[in-house]
Amino acid sequence: MTTGYVFHPEYLWHDTGTSAGLLPANPPAGIQPAVHIENPEAKRRAHELIHVSGLLAELTVIEPRRATMAELLRVHTGDHVQHIKTQSDLRGGGDAGDGFSPVGPGSYAIARLAAGGLIELVTAVARGEVTNGYALTRPPGHHATADRGMGFCLFNNIAVAARHAQAELGLTRIAIVDWDVHHGNGTQSIFYTDPSVLTISLHQAGCFPPDSGWIRENGAGDGTGYAINVPLPPGTGHAGYLHAMTEIVLPALERFAPDLILLANGFDANVFDPMARQMLTAASYRAMTRMLTDAADRLCHGRLVAAHEGGYSPFYVPYCALAFLEELAGTTTRVTDPLAVVADYAAEPLQPHQKAVIDEAAQLVSRIG
Ligand SMILES: O=C(CCC1CCCC1)NO
Ligand SMILES: [Zn+2]
Questions:
Q1: How many angstroms separate the alpha carbon of residue 222 from the centre of ligand 2?
Q2: Ligand 1 centre from 6 Cα, in Å?
Q3: ipTM score of the complex?
Q4: Which helix (DSSP H) or strand (DSSP E) does residue 359 occupy?
Q5: How far apart are CA 348 and CA 174, in angstroms?
Q6: Residues labelled as active-site residues
Q7: Which of 41, 165, 265, 311 could bond to 317 as cystine, CB 3.0-4.6 Å?
Q8: Which atom of ligand 1 is nearest to the CA of 181?
Q9: pTM more than 0.95
């Protein structure tokens, strides 16, 4: 069993500028400049820990390339691609579409490298060159819709890779699991009427985008039943997420019988993350990953490919990413989570209000044909 790994320094050069974390700096309005919340640090530190821990030496490095226009146009409108390029060509950069999502100077090429890196990894998995893999890419993608960037996302990397797998690699049925703490609205919308792609999003209820990711959003037309949302209450931790995996994600994957499982792999449900209020620890990600690798082994020859999405705690995301990747690669390193003590309060038993949401969403699994 071998695990592919994609990273490139250019991913760290996507410049999201100075802001008050989320909003553009505006001193006259009292909005002080600060580094943008979606900055390179958490990703840089994750890559460095993967290297320093010795894990990188056990992985098969896959070189990224820039996605072509044709590959982007399988998912995005030409106007949207042109918009990102135009914003990227501006001397000071611009925005992807919602005012929250900076496009730095030259970020068009970097965003193409993120999407293309995931394509290269999926290709290596489809060809059997590696069993599974992780693309530590930036900018993220799961909020980007066909015609708009949003939520720090420029292009929907995982959607572009899914369409490539179908068009070029003979992988027809694609399951996309999204455990980023924010709703994978873009990915959901792109495949909303398509039964060949199952999207399952576990996220903090009502966090972002506003009023998005409810259980009632279950697909449309031929795609009815092929979008599943699990809006978990704020404060959901290890027990709640594992219950959702057991009751919804795994049964849905069994019924759908994918040729490939893609994972929108945000780490922002971690207990230290500033962008939400969930309580997962590195051990949670390890446990959830084991459940997905077991499912991939049972269903699709181990074919599981993860794309990095959110995760903003620069000191804790590295340990979550390391735990995830150790489990994906079926190994361990000398590095252990120095903050594991938080599991004492993050290991609360499943709460009734969490179980109620999960049990309601679990009823949708039987709609998968
Ligand atoms: O991590 C993210 C980004 C969420 C933010 C985008 C604007 C406010 C919340 N999405 O998965
Ligand atoms: Zn997120």
A1: 28
A2: 23
A3: 0.99
A4: helix 352-362
A5: 33
A6: 143
A7: 311
A8: 11
A9: yes
